[in-house]
Amino acid sequence: MKEKLTRIKSKRLERRWSVSLAGLRAGGAIALGRSTDWLLKEDERKAKRKSVLAKEAKRFANELGKLKGSYVKIGQMLALFGEHLLPKELTAALHELEHQTVALDWPIIEQTLKEELGSSLGELLIEPEPLACASMGQVHRCKIIATGEEICLKVQYPGVEETIDSDFSDVVSMLKLANWLKTSRNLDMLLEEIRKLLHEETDYQREAIMTVNMGNMLKGDKRFHVPAVYQRFSTKKVIALEFIEGLEVTDNEVQSLPLPRRNKLATAMLDLLMKEIFEWGVLQTDPNFGNYRIKCSAKSDTLVLLDFGAVRAFDNSFLDPLRATIAGAYHNNKAAVVQGVIDLKCIDECHPKSVQESFASFCMGLLEPLREDFDGVSSDWINEKGEYCWAESKLIKRAAKQAAKSSFSLHFTVPPQEFALIARKLTGVFTFIVVLNAEFNGHDILKTYIDNWEHDSN
């Protein structure tokens, strides 16, 4: 039987003391370790500090996991942006929170449903065992008694929305006190963006609207299925959605699909990203694998899109430089990419030209699968048909290694919040395609979007 929690620590003092204690332990252990560093050689000193930091980071992340609710989501959010904010040991520990999905006991969830749905709750037959659980809520499968329709209820944990601001401030204060949070000119803006995202993801009424909007935008496109929203059973803390059977991308049945079918799923995912960037200006910014299901059938395979709490609209003041950067990489035009990343405010015009070009080269490398031609790309990553082999290329790993070695890393600290969200989305989509072990050329999809954008821009 799966472990369940009987309560979430909800009292302000109780929650604050728990996270503060974890921070004090970490700070004390690190300080104590450093007090004897002078006895060690340089390489021994570095190894010891790394070991202590990893141990204390794991302890701190585990404490956040025990607190459930917004603390876990805060940890997950910080992990997503962690490479720009935190020591890599802490980022790695916080990523483990993505796998900590302990459910709450049914009586707690049932009480929330009674408060939110009132008499309408009597119209549903709900399975007490959760279908899925996450940091701020869990999902229960149920049936509408009158019609027999199967739906899902996503129920928010009690007290989550009310504690976001105080919990977030506590975590940030602790990270600063322990010198785990890097300072930069964009830090406050990025932290505020994370806070805003947290609030948006607790507003299920907003998520219901975004789900309906996405369904309307993809209406008629058989490659995708967006669940219908049942407004009668939806509130600010409960959202009722059509139940759809589907598999995760990592499922053996999906992995064993023939290459043409996996390619079709992968190209659909990439095409959706290009629609978001070049046509809609609205992106689902959380590409977690849990937000997608694949519905397989003899006739066709469908991407089921879930969870639109992280949908964001972007202004053209950001989108146009982003589009220009992608177009520059597509045409293998480094000068255009340099100007694009300057306009995106990732690199300043005052930075040395070598730094600008280094970051542009990194962007062009990351967008390698979308290029108009593959000049300079290793033949090991191109199959006999001239198609890009996404998994073989190890693109994400190569990009991370290049970023660590490049000269721009000394100048590039915390990026603008919009860029961080796009980077998160792009990495997630590319990783999804890699897991499908797809083989296709991204420029075949990108060409139409680039041509239309360049035509409209002239």
- The end-to-end distance, rounded to whole angstroms, is 62 Å
C-alpha geometry: globular
DSSP helix fraction: 40-55%
- Average pLDDT, rounded to a whole number, is 85
Low-confidence stretches: 28-33
β-strand number: 12
Query: What's the SSE pattern?
Result: EHHHHHEHEEEEHHHEEHHEEEEHHHHHHH
Sheet/helix structural class: alpha+beta
Instruction: Give me the number of helical elements.
Output: 18
Rg of Cα set: 23 Å
| Largest sheet, strands/sense/barrel | 5 strands, antiparallel
- Report the β-strand fraction as a percent range: 5-15%
Short note summarizing the structure:
The chain is α+β, with helices and mostly antiparallel strands. The chain is 54% helix and 10% strand.
Strand and helix map with partners:
Blueprint: E1 4-5, H1 12-35, H2 42-67, H3 69-80, H4 82-85, H5 88-95, E2 103-104, H6 106-117, E3 124-126, E4 132-133, E5 137-144, E6 150-156, H7 160-177, H8 187-200, H9 204-217, E7 224-225, E8 238-242, H10 252-255, H11 259-280, E9 282-284, E10 292-296, E11 301-305, E12 311-313, H12 316-330, H13 334-343, H14 353-366, H15 390-393, H16 395-405, H17 417-435, H18 443-457
Parallel strand pairs: 1-2, 7-11
Antiparallel strand pairs: 3-5, 4-5, 5-6, 6-8, 9-12, 10-11
Helix pairs in contact: 1-2, 1-7, 2-3, 2-5, 3-5, 3-7, 11-17, 11-18, 12-13, 13-14, 14-16
